[in-house]
Structure formats: C-alpha cells, structure tokens
Specification:
By secondary structure, the chain is an all-alpha fold. Helices cover about 80% and strands about 0% of the residues.
C-alpha cells in the first residue's frame, strides 16, 4: 500500500511533464495558442490539463520557471569551471543561444510570466549573477568601467532578445547569433 502514493505521484509528475513539453511545442508554433490546443498536443483531456494548470497564465508561468531552471542547470557547470569575467560571459552566451529553439515564445508572453513572483525572483538573481560577471570583466579591462553594470546587463538582455528573434525568424543560426552577439556586445561595451 505504501507504493500506491509513490506511483500516483510519479504518474502526476509524468502527466505534468508531458503537458509542459506539449505547451512548449505548441507555444513555439503559436504563442497565442489556447489550452485546448495544448491539451490535444499533450494527448490529455482538458480536465487533466486544468487539474495541473488552472489557467493558461499559470501554465505560461510554469514554463517560464522551467526555462529559468534549465538556464541555471546549463550555467552550473560554467560556475564549477571557475570561469570569470569575459570568459564566463562568453560561455553564458554560448549556452543561452540554443535555448531560443526551446523558449523563444516567452519573449511575447513575458508580461504573463512576470506576474509570477518566483519567476521574477529567479530572473533577478540571474541578472545579479550576470552583473557580477560584468564587474569582473570591467576589472579585467574587457568592459569599459565608465559604463554602469546595470546598463551593460540591460544591453546584454536586449542583445539576447534580438538574437533569439533572429533565430526564431530563421535569419541566423544559434552559432552565428552567438558570434554576432559577442562581437556587438564587446565592441559596444569596450
């Protein structure tokens, strides 16, 4: 009998994961897609979908949270390598670019995601961490010290958005966007 709750929990977690992955796929194709389309893609009924996510907004927030967690998971190995300053920033760019193929729909839905305090808390922490790397790069002479770190981080965020849009519209590959991002970022911030 003790295994029954574990099996039910595993089944619920699997169902939620399937819905999240279907949500990502559907919203990549159409950021305005509704819950019915997502339920159909997930192969679940609407009732099951709504048991996991009471609204489209809550699903979008969960997907934003998933994106930020996946970003953290990609960045942890970089931190473990002890990368700092410019070297770390460039490594961040390299791991963030391919994420456009998975989470670019969040650009048009960020206003919904930003209503979730957990999403904002994680996002702000990530920006603080990037700001520390910028300060390191400034101390190393790779980024101009007269530029405020807030300005540089905001510029980084804007370039990331621009790169993801170009990737979304198939104007650039992830690798080409990463290379252009680095060139633009460092030539503008030097």
């Amino acid at each position: 009998m003790k295994d029954a709750p574990k099996k039910e929990h595993a089944k619920t977690a699997h169902s939620r994961s399937v819905i999240e992955e279907a949500g990502i796929e559907v919203l990549l194709r159409n950021p305005a897609a509704g819950m019915s389309e997502i339920a159909l893609a997930a192969g679940v009924g609407r009732a099951t979908l709504y048991r996991h996510f009471e609204s489209r907004e809550l699903l979008v927030q969960a997907l934003a949270n998933k994106c930020l967690q996946e970003t953290d998971a990609l960045v942890v190995p970089l931190k473990e390598q002890g990368l700092t300053g410019k070297e770390a920033i460039e490594a961040y760019i390299d791991v963030l670019m391919p994420m456009a193929n998975r989470f670019r729909f969040l650009m048009s839905l960020w206003n919904i995601a930003a209503d979730d305090p957990t999403v904002i808390r994680i996002y702000q922490r990530q920006l603080r961490e990037l700001r520390e790397l910028v300060k390191q790069a400034q101390d190393e002479g790779d980024i101009c010290k007269s530029l405020s770190s807030i300005w540089v981080v905001t510029t980084f965020d804007a370039l990331l958005t621009s790169a993801w849009q170009l990737i979304e519209h198939r104007k650039m590959s992830s690798a080409a966007a990463a290379a252009a991002f680095k060139r633009t970022f460092y030539s503008g911030c030097k």
